[in-house]
């Protein structure tokens, strides 16, 4: 908006005058209410913030006293037991660990050798081969952390961990346990491998593999 424009200046002046006139009319209309609100007509109490905070606390002291009396009565009661004895650690049922389900061998992993009273969780990672660990402490660039991670990545995740630690390991996890180890007979890779290992080698596709001749007149290239 250009305030140097005469039309804009006239509009602003009229707006200011109209606003002042409306404000004056409102003040004149509600003069009595404004004077009543601006004048302190009640006796001063001189309350502080702490007095206002303590007011609801004083009102609740009666309830606190009753609760204290009830608590003293309940403390003299004998506690009710659900059974004749409270089971402890020695009564817990053992089992369902890595050793029990056959995922680990205590002879290979010393962390799996624990007493029955030990309630700590099972280890997550399988023990690392000592020869593989020595790669970290050898000189670079032939060895070191990067070489260790590279060699470590060549090992199957199921050989490194007891359980799948990420959703990406779900596909292909422990495929060796499956009984369906035979590859499909008509798969592309399996068919090529079988023909390469055969006595005559790979052969062309049979005639019935070719596309059929469309209906209608056909011509012969030899004529």
Automatic annotation (TrEMBL):
This is Sperm microtubule inner protein 1 C-terminal domain-containing protein. Pfam families: SPMIP1. It comes from Manduca sexta (Tobacco hawkmoth). It comes from the Eukaryota. Residues 106-206 form the Sperm microtubule inner protein 1 C-terminal domain. Residues 201-223 are annotated as: Disordered.
């Amino acid at each position: 908006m250009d305030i140097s424009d005469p039309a804009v200046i006239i509009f602003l002046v009229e707006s200011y005058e109209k606003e002042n006139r409306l404000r004056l009319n409102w003040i004149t209309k509600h003069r009595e209410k404004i004077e009543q609100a601006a004048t302190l007509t009640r006796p001063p109490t001189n309350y502080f913030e702490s007095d206002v905070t303590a007011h609801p606390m004083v009102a609740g002291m009666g309830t606190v006293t009753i609760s204290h009396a009830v608590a003293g009565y309940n403390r003299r009661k004998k506690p009710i037991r659900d059974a004749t004895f409270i089971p402890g650690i020695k009564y817990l049922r053992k089992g369902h660990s890595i050793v029990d389900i056959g995922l680990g061998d205590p002879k290979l992993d010393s962390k799996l050798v624990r007493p029955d009273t030990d309630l700590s969780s099972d280890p997550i990672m399988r023990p690392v081969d000592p020869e593989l660990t020595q790669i970290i402490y050898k000189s670079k660039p032939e060895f070191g952390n990067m070489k260790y991670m590279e060699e470590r990545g060549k090992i199957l995740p199921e050989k490194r961990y007891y359980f799948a630690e990420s959703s990406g390991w779900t596909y292909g996890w422990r495929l060796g346990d499956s009984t369906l180890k035979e590859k499909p007979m008509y798969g592309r890779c399996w068919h090529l491998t079988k023909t390469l290992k055969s006595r005559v080698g790979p052969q062309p596709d049979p005639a019935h593999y070719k596309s059929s001749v469309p209906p209608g007149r056909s011509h012969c290239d030899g004529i």
